Amino acid sequence: QVQLVESGGGLVQAGGSLTLSCAASGRIFTITAMGWYRQAPGKQREFVAGIIPSGHTRYADPVKGRFSISRDHNMNTWLQMSSLKPEDSAVYYCAVRRAGSTDYDSWGQGTQVTVSS
Q1: What is the residue-wise DSSP string for 40-64?
Q2: What is the DSSP letter of 74?
Q3: What confidence tier does 108 reach under pLDDT thresholds 50, 70, 90?
Q4: What is the pLDDT of residue 53?
Q5: pLDDT tier at 77 (50, 70, 90 boundaries)?
Q6: CA 34 – CA 50 distance, rounded (Å)
Q7: Most distant CA pair in the chain: distance in Å?
Q8: Alpha-carbon torsion (29, 33, 35, 39), positive or negative
């Protein structure tokens, strides 16, 4: 099992910046990908950014150029968010994909990000 704990959410004005952190523990050696998702009220959860141990990253189109995902050798993950927009407001979830899985299968509890206009 892998345990994930997010932190760093909060209230920020439009145009501001915020960094989310995700602390991983447990069987971190089984992790093959790390990512961030978000879910706004009344909307489906959507992919935001992902990174694999080699460092290769992938971003959803709405956040390209504004968000940056990174990780360390302990599989802790960060999501640096800049030029935030009100439409970025959501609960952000950290997730990992483990060996043998085809999709993200372990999730954190989520952290709220609210961007005021």
Answers
A1: -TTS--EEEEEE-TT--EEE-GGGT
A2: T
A3: very high
A4: 87
A5: very high
A6: 6
A7: 43
A8: negative
